[in-house]
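User: Here's a protein and a ligand (zinc ion). What would the complex look like?
Assistant: Let me lay out the input and then the predicted complex.
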Amino acid sequence: MTGLSGACLCGQIRYSTPAVPLVVGHCHCIDCRKSSGTGHSTHILIPEEGFEMTGEPRFYDHPADSRHIVSRGFCADCGSPILSRNSAMPALLALRASSLDDPGAVTPQMIVYASRAPAWDAMDPALPCFAHMPEESAVAEMIGGAAPD
Ligand SMILES: [Zn+2]
Ligand SMILES: [Zn+2]
């Protein structure tokens, strides 16, 4: 079986997607830290096509460094982060790996905003690591699967 599925803690929000992730990454930006409960969030970037969700997340909109608006969707009842959208990437969604039914279904490939990581939130030193958000070309490389192995 392909695809991913997940839910919030209380189960009111549940989703599934047939998508293969474009990229999976840890982000240590302040917004991701504050909304995570620990030092980073782990995002799964997918195309929106085929994404299905029951329940209605509440969204909190906040500008990123790029000035693009990031809308973070979470369960209004249990508070679990579910997904986010970026106004610069309207056809894509970023699922929170914490919401997956099987978190082992994905493998993180990169770390962004590492410069903002707390010292106690150590990450896999084998992963490509960017101090801030990588240039578009670097992201394109990651999405294109051209990452060094
Ligand atoms: Zn919930
Ligand atoms: Zn972030």
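Summary: The helical segments are 30-34, 136-143.
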